[in-house]
Structures are given as C-alpha cells and as structure tokens.
Amino acid sequence: NPLVLVAYPYLVKTFVNAYATEGSEQLGQRIAGILQKKLFKSKDYPKGDGVQSSLLETQLEKSLRLSSRSRQKVVSILAQNSSFWILKILHGNFSRKELPRVPDMLQSLLDDYFNNKKSRLKSGFIKEIFRRYPWTGHRLFSFLLEKCTSTKSEYRMTEALALIESILKTWVSGKTHVDEDAPGGLQFLRENLLPLCSLMQQLLSKPMSKGSRRSDVRRFFISALQAIARSKLGEAFCKALRPDAYAACESYLGDKFRPLLKFDDGVSEKNVHREEKKSC
C-alpha cells in the first residue's frame, strides 16, 4: 500500500531520535524490528499511481546522507537498508530515464567520500547498489575513472578502482540488466574506452607503493580486460593503447594478457602488431 510511504519517514525519524536520546534504545530497537520485518525484508513493496518519484528521491537522499554521516553503526546500517528499499520501489515503478536524480545523488555521495574526511561511507554499500542496479554503476563509470586519474592519494585511488572493478565484474558475470539507452550495457564501456586506457597507462607508469595495493591494481586489470573481451572491444583497446603501454601491459600480466583479451573475435596477433607499427 502506497500509504506505507506516508508512515515510513516518521518511523525513521523516531528511530534516529531514539538512538540520540539516552535511555530510548529499546524504542529504537522496536522500530527497527518493524521496519526490517514489515518493509525491508518483505517481497512486496508499494506500487501504483500513489507512488511519487519525487518524494521517494527526497527520502533516498536523506537515507544516503545518513548512511555516510552517522557515528552509530546501527543507524548507518538501517540507513543503508532504507536506501536499498527505496531503490527497489523506484526501480519497480519507474523507468531509468525517469530517475535521473538517482545517479546524481550517488555521485554527490561519492564525491563527498573522496573529498571529505568526515564521510563515513562504506564502499561495500555502494558496491551492493551497483550489483543490484547495474545501470547506476554504468552512469557513474566516467566519474569514477576521473576520480582515479585525478586523486593524489593511493588509498582513494584503490577505493575508486575497487568500485570500477565491481561495475566491470557485474558486466562480465552477465548479471547486468539491459539499459534503455545502452543495449546490453555495452555503451558505457565503449564510450569510456579511451579514459580507461589512459588510467591503465597511468597505473603502469606509476606503480603503487604497497604490495597489497599492487595486488588490487592487478585484479582491476584482469577485470577490465575480461570486460573488454566480453564486449568484443579487444581490437579497439589495442589501438587505443600506446605501443609502449601495450608492451608494458603484456609484460605486467605475462601469459594471462592475450588469453584475457580472447583474440578470437577476428583480432589476430599479427593485426595487433600491425596497428602498433602504425601508431609508431
């Protein structure tokens, strides 16, 4: 029943206030139980003409901010679950073209995460959104690539790489949904192939200082090449890479490089090296 959406914000507000007031935790626990059992874990959700995207987007914005600002873990977790629930309602009632504010809100949240030390956002939360609703990750792919290339912090770069990797993995696994303005999800990768190549060239020329982060970069490379192969963009990828970057990439991944690109889609080693010579 869409009327649930009328009661929902009051329940959340009471829950947050309960944990802000000493001695009211029991009330907060009762409200959390109601929200989890009756709303978040229910297979049913509000549908029909009574569902307004603008009101839901306002509530989503509040939940996203609460998830990244609350110092209390229990409040942050409920805010995350609230966000998943609202996204489910939006996804079930409206087309993606009717929800331009959703990726904008996520971008604002991530921008705050990368630039503000006060942000308590958990990257795993965003990865789960990308997994459930791949189109949101597709819309933020370019933004995340830019964050990777512009940040001076290795930690923030590896965090951004992990988010990009989660988008690519969803695409490679075949779990992604067909995007209305990007058939098969392919368009987001094709449009960002050059920035992706630039990022890979940057990572090859300036290796990470810590071994664990170098392992993260290697996993990212493997996911990127798997996505490129699945999209049959291997030839375009090799043309976009500088000859020295191509050689560095092949040396970096060793025997895994060419099998990952799966040069069985009409791209032969001879053709690749011919393009390298042209580039020179």
Describe, in short, the structure shown:
74% of the residues lie in helices and 0% in strands. The chain has helices spanning 4-20, 25-40, 53-69, 73-93, 101-115, 123-132, 134-150, 154-173, 186-191, 193-205, 211-230, 234-240, 243-253, 257-261, 269-279.
Percent helix, as a range, is: over 70%
Total beta strands: 0
**What are the secondary-structure elements, in order, as H or E?**
HHHHHHHHHHHHHHH
How many domains? The number is: 2
Specify the oligomeric state.
single chain
Largest sheet: none
**Residue windows where pLDDT falls under 50 for at least 5 positions:** 177-184, 264-280
Overall mean pLDDT stands at 86
**CA distance, first residue to last residue:** 65 Å
Q: Rounded to an integer, what's the Rg over CA atoms?
A: 22 Å
Keywords: Nucleus
Subcellular location: Nucleus
GO biological process, one term: regulation of DNA-templated transcription
GO molecular function, one term: DNA binding
Key features?
280 residues; mainly alpha; 15 helices; 74% helix; 0% strand; elongated; disordered C terminus; nucleus; DNA binding
What does this structure look like?
This protein has 280 residues and is mostly helical. It contains 15 helices and no strands. Mean pLDDT is 86; it is low at 177-184 and 264-280.
Topology:
Layout: H1 4-20, H2 25-40, H3 53-69, H4 73-93, H5 101-115, H6 123-132, H7 134-150, H8 154-173, H9 186-191, H10 193-205, H11 211-230, H12 234-240, H13 243-253, H14 257-261, H15 269-279
